[in-house]
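quick one before i forget lol
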Amino acid sequence: MKFTFNLPQSLPEMTVKKLLEEQLLIPRKIRHFLRTKKHIQINQKQVRWNQIVKPGDECQLVFDEEDYPKKEIPWGNPNLVQEVYQDQHLIIVNKPEGMKTHGNQPKEIALLNHVSAYVGQTCYVVHRLDMETSGLVLFAKNPFILPILNRLLEKKEISREYWALAQGKFQTKKRVYRNKIGRDRHDRRKRVVDPKNGQSAETHLTLLKQFRNDLSLVRCRLKTGRTHQIRVHLSYNQHPIIGDPLYNPASKCKRLMLHAYRLSFIHPLTLERLSFTADSYTFEEQLKRTDEH
């Protein structure tokens, strides 16, 4: 693999060592290979480890297969992929409801397999959506960018915004849920609010629209990313999501009314601010029917 890119103008001057270690998060073993094999060039020239790089400099990195061994997965159907954004390092797609983000078994076909077939190379999951949830999902196109994107996610620098159609009326336009979430001991598929042993979880809600039939459209921003976080928080606080088969089984809606509407972050290599939105036809259709009633 060979990657060539220009250092962003907003990036401060730093040594080659600091660039690879702190900015690009390249593992120590791989940094050693880059150094001993002379597989890094700045402005098409070999560099010393303590050499200063500047904004606008061209950086070229070459990785051998032994640096990042290829991971082979079965190809899916590229026609099932709805691309929202793609560059040399990452791709963002709009996932339909009813499709897993990645398979649980080696030969299971899921969105990851479809995206890999669409791109023409094995991709890597950065974050996932529940099978029943539609919306934006971010994938790394190579193992070089994966830990960098993972760091953004861990540092809460990837903003995720969801829309949900929930039962009941909200008394305030904004509210925050901080109920700790843990596993349900009686049903391995589910999560529950567990104040004693649960993990911290924080969901920020904004009321977008109140419907006449005691339903509410809300925007949910995640500060943490626990499994089923929005579904559990809303259900626990007496506002279960319409169509949720686990936490609102009495609902007759054909799909879970939860959609990952917006994804925003600063590109780690270009430092460009990226923000994308995506619609869901089935989500919008259900909202129209709700409004008509």
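fyi The first strand starts at residue 2 and ends at 6.
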